[in-house]
Amino acid sequence: MINGDGAPWIAAGKQALGPKHTFCHYDTFHMTRDLRRLMKHHPRYPKMARALKKGQPDSLLIELNSAVGTMETEDQELIQRMTQQKEAFSNFKFWLQKHGHDTRNMATLGASESLISV
Q: d(Cα 110, Cα 115) in Å, to the nearest integer?
């Protein structure tokens, strides 16, 4: 599992390790922060936030694509990144469960950053 903020090295890591053994995840902390920064005043934002929280990238993309006409051009990068790497925006726990891991006591990946100095 590779988790991060969408930096290019994450996709490179997946390519090096292979898709069978790697799940690249754009962590919820960074995604929530970016989505809030771009869309917090948009009427569709609550639906976007729910889709993100539930790990539903298809629903999130539908809401984001519906909002494209009201977004600044530079903000559309988020939609492009999500479309190209949709799997990275889904809930990593679902991937782990499919591979036989128990995720009941796992924190979110974004929570791990605050523990790095511990």
A: 10
